[in-house]
Specification:
alpha+beta; four-stranded mixed beta sheet; two-stranded antiparallel ribbon; 4 helices; 6 strands; 48% helix
């Protein structure tokens, strides 16, 4: 049974590592099945959400399919740049180590990745707090998608 206010999410999906692809697939599934997400003083759910990065800005277009009213939220990506770089460094470390490292070392890298993930989610919640209400797990899912977009738009490296 679907229990999410998010009906659909679209964003540029291109080639990515199997681990990141799995994380993006999981994030989209979680956002469209069990997220806690509501526009403050705006249309009621369900929402269709388009994510993109344009000119170093996250563009989040949200539409209620019933009213066709569109709300756009634009955030600078500058505060996310270091977090995205750290996130991908952790993913790369994990992928390089997963065949040879001990479970304890893999767990350490994964815990560090989760810490960066949590920091990105907290930043997103803080930056949208007067526009969008969302729980921490929902923000973590959005941060996964933001990282994927950031990689494609050259915000890392």
């Amino acid at each position: 049974m679907k229990n999410s206010p998010i009906a659909n999410i679209t964003f540029l999906q291109e080639n990515r590592s199997p681990l990141l692809q799995n994380e993006c697939d999981t994030a989209i599934r979680d956002l469209t099945t069990k997220s806690d997400f509501h526009l403050i003083h705006q249309d009621k759910p369900p929402y269709n959400i388009d994510l993109d990065i344009q000119d170093n800005r996250l563009v989040m277009d949200i539409c209620n399919p019933d009213s066709q009213q569109r709300h756009s939220f634009i955030l600078s990506m500058s505060p996310y740049r270091r977090l995205i770089q750290d996130y991908f460094m952790m993913i790369e470390s994990y992928e390089h180590m997963r065949l040879t490292a001990t479970p304890e070392k893999l767990q350490t890298v994964d815990m560090a990745r989760r810490g960066v993930h949590n920091e990105g989610a907290d930043l997103l919640i803080d930056r949208l707090n007067d526009k969008i209400e969302m729980d921490h797990e929902t923000a973590r899912c959005f941060f996964t998608l933001i990282c994927s977009l950031g990689m494609k738009r050259g915000l890392i490296g």
